[in-house]
Design goal:
Layout lengths: L1 H23 L14 E2 L6 E2 L8 E5 H7 L14 E4 L13 E4 L7 E5 L2 E2 L20 E7 L4 H4 L6 E7 L5 E11 L6 E10 L7 E12 L2 E2 L14 E2 L6 E3 L7 E3 L8 E3 L2 E3 L2 E2 L5 E3 L1 E15 L3 E18 L3 E8 L5 E2 L5 E2 L4 E8 L6 E20 L2 E22 L1 H10 L17 E26 L2 E19 L2 H4 L13 E19 L2 E12 L3 E15 L2 E12 L3 H5 L3 E7 L2 H6 L10 E7 L8 E15 L2 E17 L2 H6 L4 E2 L2 E2 L4 E3 L11 E6 L2 E21 L2 E18 L7 E2 L9 E11 L2 E10 L2 E2 L13 E2 L2 E11 L7 E7 L27 E9 L1
Parallel strand pairs: 6-9, 36-42
Antiparallel strand pairs: 1-2, 3-8, 4-5, 6-7, 8-9, 10-11, 10-52, 11-12, 12-21, 13-20, 14-19, 15-16, 15-26, 17-18, 21-22, 22-27, 23-26, 24-25, 27-28, 28-29, 29-30, 30-31, 31-32, 32-33, 33-34, 34-37, 35-36, 37-38, 38-43, 39-40, 41-42, 43-44, 44-45, 44-46, 46-47, 47-50, 48-49, 50-51, 51-52
């Protein structure tokens, strides 16, 4: 009863404030007709003209999306400085089928994604980030990007920025669009068609109905078909080989081949052994099929009220190819007669080896086939009474993923058979011998958000610069997640380590109240003041303020600045998901030093790990600062410059590399060395090879980031057409991290996937029915190192990445509003630089190895 009373009290307080605002309005009615339409823009709850905003809001229009050649929602951001849009290519081995969006070097966890200003459900298979693949491109009217912390407006997750997808409304007519594309190498074929149907004039008829459809089908691209990803070098292999590798006392604690190897042996800090090269089986881009439908009904109710009902439904299915499943057999006894290894080393009968690394590929590769069904249903009512705008919204958003896994090997059963003497890990079996161990399974995950929002906004009193406006509101959300593995997964039989997949069920409630003031203090000075209080049922309470100001000393110059605080509540999977099997890449500097291997030649290796949850995680907190200026040189030329700083504390994370680098430091309640398992040291060695590790998740990190962003927009009309030039430049001053409390901050700018600068310039041309676009994006190169400690005098640099996109179009072919478009993405077939330190892809996640792509499109409307 007490918890229910607290929730009701919060809601009552919000509505009392709304009522008070409405009552005070009777004495302040001006009777004047509004001449300029004021709308609610991202970053504020108050309706206003967008030019009045004191914070930076970048708008990506429907036309901008079309001229970019994008076929998916996340692809819209791939060309923009400051964004790191991790699509299917980057997520191929980490979160297949999911597309996420990072900003200003921060991860996708720190970016809030909205649809029409309201939250969407996070990806159910990985509940820490929003999945852009659930948003059909045809449904989007524009995208608004708030380049600022906004927890005072929207609550959790709005640390690095907010991306609001605004869907289409009040459309009348019929539209259709078809696009066909393929790479210059003949793979990755894409077919997309979309359409929209709308009828009813909202102003004249009092209603509008809109339906959009978007369908995309794309064939896979395999890593073996790109030279950059199918090469043989450090970081491209591991020791789980089809012919087996072993570590024991007789091998001196180093890794040696069990049977004759089909590849050339490799030598690194682990030993001399038979390698397995991942990328002969893994896809670069998965086979994908996506369909999305949006339906919107808006209805005018009298002169001052309206209502809407909207439904967004999408399905996304990807087929991902992976290498055959790796496995580890630990503490295996050498059989009678002993074993002679491929290099002649003898293992005596009765010896217990530390581990055998194996990968049975006789029955093909693994396939992970996630299908995510997403839906979002909402209804709203807006009315105006007593000079106050009232908005009420209710709805839900759900993401459900059926995660089908095939081609796995039942290592748990094989281990029992080894102990019983009915299966041998020392020989290379044929397909029939291991058919009984081939297993498949399906895990079903669901994530859901139910919401109710109430808001009131109105003008309050007159200031020197105009009428002050205010907003108050109340928000109630209920979030839930479930993760239900099949019987085999729950028993650990689809796991290389035998770790079971834990079923989880969790939910929490969020109640929030907020208030905002828009204050035109002077004709040249505007201020925004906001505060929000969020109360989580499982993570405590957080109050976040925001202050933003805009000074216009002359009409052509605006100077703006803001301060805000933000937070991110712990993700369900971090709180609840325990014993999750994974693999991490790291450099074992202790072993390298023990063997006399120079630090610069210590090879990054993949290790089996088990990730653990932490029910005691606290929310992350941030402080955001911004200062900038916009100068309108003339009506055709506008330049801007902005500085930002984001300081984040209590950052949630886990790192195998940090644990290996700090064996004698207390991490999560025990020493770093106690989180790892090592083989017994060989003769003459003091440190044994790493066998595996457990990884805790903790509030440990601190991050301080600063950067500069410059913009230039120029319009030019000539006798041969209209030209428009847009240039955006992002420069990272620093991105400093401390991996644990008390640790010094270390700068990561200039290291892996954190370039110093990115520049994008686009030139558009329109002349009668003709149109063309040229876009050039350059990302600065960086050192081939993940950690500052990895950098040595011989560390190589990953080259910069420069792509050029071209598009030519002709309007009025066949229908009045038709357009034929031909485009080339990455026209000069640029390939990323090689890396030895970015998982097993062979190139950085921030770059693309797809290469040149051609596409042809036709659209019509009437």
């Amino acid at each position: 009863m007490l918890k229910q009373y607290k929730v009701s009290a919060i809601g009552a307080a919000a509505f009392l404030a709304v009522s008070a605002m409405g009552a005070s309005a009777m004495a302040q009615t001006t009777g004047q007709t509004q001449q300029i339409e004021r709308v609610t823009v991202t970053g504020s709850n108050i309706k206003r003209v967008q030019s009045e905003e004191a914070t930076v809001v970048q708008v990506i229009s429907k036309q901008d999306i079309e001229r970019s050649g994008a076929t998916t929602a996340n692809e819209v951001f791939l060309k923009l400085p400051g964004f790191s849009s991790y699509n299917d290519e980057a997520n191929a081995t980490g979160a297949p089928g999911r597309s996420t969006l990072g900003f200003r070097q921060f991860s996708a966890d720190d970016v809030l994604v909205l649809i029409n200003g309201r939250r969407m459900a996070k990806n159910s298979a990985n509940a820490s980030a929003y999945d852009l693949s659930s948003i059909p491109l045809a449904a989007i009217e524009r995208v608004e990007v708030l380049k600022d912390g906004a927890s005072a407006i929207y609550g959790s997750d709005a640390i690095a920025g907010v991306v609001n997808f605004v869907t289409r409304r009040d459309f009348q007519g019929i539209e259709g669009n078809v696009i066909y594309g393929k790479t210059s190498r003949g793979d990755g074929e894409e077919k997309r068609f979309s359409g929209a149907l709308g009828f009813g004039d909202f102003d004249k008829d009092g209603y509008n109905v809109l339906v959009t459809l978007d369908h995309l089908k794309r064939d896979p691209i395999l890593r073996r078909d790109r030279e950059i990803t199918f090469r043989k070098g450090p970081g491209m292999y591991n020791d789980a080989s089809p012919t087996g590798n072993v570590i024991s006392a007789s091998t001196g604690g180093t890794t040696m081949p069990v049977n004759k190897c089909s590849e050339d042996l490799v030598t690194d800090n682990a030993g001399t052994y038979c390698p397995y090269y991942f990328n002969k089986a893994i896809n670069l881009l998965p086979a994908t099929e996506r369909t999305g439908v949006l339906g919107v009904l808006t209805k005018k109710i009298g002169a001052e009220s309206s209502a809407y009902l909207e439904a967004l439904v999408s399905t996304n299915k990807t087929t991902n190819f992976f290498s055959a499943p790796p496995g580890t057999f630990s503490n295996v006894t050498v059989p009678a007669g002993g074993i002679t290894l491929a290099n002649g080393t003898k293992l005596p009968a009765g010896e217990v080896v530390d581990k055998i690394r194996i990968r049975y590929d006789q029955n093909g590769v693994r396939r992970w086939i996630p299908q995510t069904d997403f839906n979002r249903i909402g209804a709203g009512f807006e009315t105006r009474a007593m000079d106050t705008d009232f908005t009420f919204e209710i709805g839900s958003s759900e993401s459900k993923t059926d995660y089908k896994a095939t081609g796995f090997f039942d290592y748990a059963t094989a281990k029992k058979d080894i102990a019983a003497g009915t299966f041998s890990p020392w020989t290379v079996p044929n397909a029939a011998d291991i058919a009984k161990y081939n297993v498949s399974g399906t895990t079903i995950s669901k994530g859901k958000v139910q919401f109710f929002n109430a808001k009131a906004t109105r003008e309050l009193f007159k200031l020197d610069g105009g009428m002050a406006a205010g907003a108050v509101g109340y928000s109630h959300n209920k979030e839930s997640i479930s993760y239900q593995p099949d019987e085999l997964s729950a028993a650990g039989r689809l796991s290389a380590t035998g770790a079971p997949v834990t079923a989880i069920n969790g939910s929490r409630k969020l109640n929030a109240v907020y208030a905002e003031l828009g204050l035109p203090l002077l004709k040249t000075l505007d201020a925004q003041v906001a505060v929000r209080h969020d109360r989580y049922s499982d993570a405590g309470s957080v109050t976040t303020p925001k202050l933003a100001m805009k000074w216009t000393p002359v009409r052509s110059l605006a100077i703006r600045g803001s301060y805000s605080e933000g937070f991110r509540a712990p993700a369900f999977e971090d709180l609840l998901k325990d014993n999750e099997e994974s693999a991490e890449f790291a450099k074992d500097y202790l072993v390298c030093a023990d063997k006399g291997i120079d630090k610069s030649k210590c090879v990054q290796t993949q290790y089996d790990v088990v990730r653990h949850n932490n029910p005691n995680l606290k929310p992350e907190h941030s402080k955001n600062f911004a200062l900038g200026a916009v100068f309108e040189v003339n009506r055709d030329l506008v330049v801007s410059a902005d500085w930002y700083a984001i300081n984040k504390t209590d950052a949630i994370g886990r790192s195998l590399q940090y644990i290996l680098d700090n064996p004698d430091k207390m991490i999560g309640g025990k020493l770093g060395k106690d989180w790892v398992t090592r083989a017994a040291p060989g003769a003459g060695s003091k440190v044994g090879n790493l066998v595996g590790a457990d990884l805790p998740i903790l509030n440990v990190a601190k991050i301080e980031a600063q950067g500069l962003e410059f913009g230039l927009s120029y319009r030019l009309s000539t006798a041969v057409g209209r030209f428009a030039l847009e240039n955006q430049f992002s420069y990272n001053l620093h991105f400093r991290q401390a991996r644990a409390p008390g640790e010094p901050l270390k700068d990561y700018v200039g290291l892996m996937d954190k370039p110093k600068y990115v520049n994008n310039v686009t030139v558009n041309w329109d002349f009668g029915p003709w149109m063309a676009s040229v876009s050039d994006r350059y990302m600065d190169g960086f050192k081939d190192a993940n950690e500052p400690a990895d950098v040595t005098s011989t560390t190589k640099k990953v080259k910069g990445f420069n792509t050029v996109d071209l598009q030519l179009g002709y309007k009025g072919l066949g229908f009045k509003n038709s357009k034929l478009t031909f485009g080339v993405k990455n026209a000069f077939d640029a390939m990323p630089g090689e890396t030895d330190n970015d998982q097993n892809a062979g190139f950085p996640n921030s770059m693309s190895a797809v290469g040149r792509q051609y596409y042809l499109g036709y659209s019509f409307g009437y």
